[in-house]
TrEMBL record:
<dbReference type="InterPro" id="IPR007061">
    <property type="entry name" value="MST-like"/>
</dbReference>
<dbReference type="InterPro" id="IPR034660">
    <property type="entry name" value="DinB/YfiT-like"/>
</dbReference>
<protein>
    <submittedName>
        <fullName>Uncharacterized protein DUF664</fullName>
    </submittedName>
</protein>
<dbReference type="Pfam" id="PF04978">
    <property type="entry name" value="MST"/>
</dbReference>
Amino acid sequence: MHGIPPRRVLSLPLERLPEQTEAMERAAEPEVDDEVGAVLGWLEFHRDALAAKCEGLTAEQLVTASAPPSTLTLLGLVRHLTEMERDYLTNDLSGENRGRVYVTDDDSEADIENLDASMVDSSMARWQAERAAADAVITRYGSLSELSPNGRATIRAYLLKVLQEYARHNGHADIIRERIDGSRGE
């Protein structure tokens, strides 16, 4: 019988992080009993969480891949979530195909790869605009149970898809931000 091989410990050269001075401020968790309020409240909560992770950083810091070997950056997450808002909310819920924001047939990673500081202002403005466009489309519906114009899923399913994208990527944002300047927050 063969024994279990010894566990390998991966060691990365990590520099000491700055001491945390205070927790980041952001919106409180939604306290509602109805489904619509809960889903929309959690979506706004997670949008705000990503904005808080970006707040106070320089353009250079927003494009810093601070958790090697990952190449994810905070700006890459913002741009990726801009794509998610466009794909699942603006396009699918409006019934119009307004195309993609960053991703192309030739570059499926254009939202998160090869970013530089010159892209920060326009990317942040685009994110805010796409959020507003998505919110405008969402308000057209009276029930989360309605089918989207393409008939593939309910409004609820599309909102939950985008909500889980934010929740999942906000975990990445927590790590990236902490590695940049030691800041922590919910």
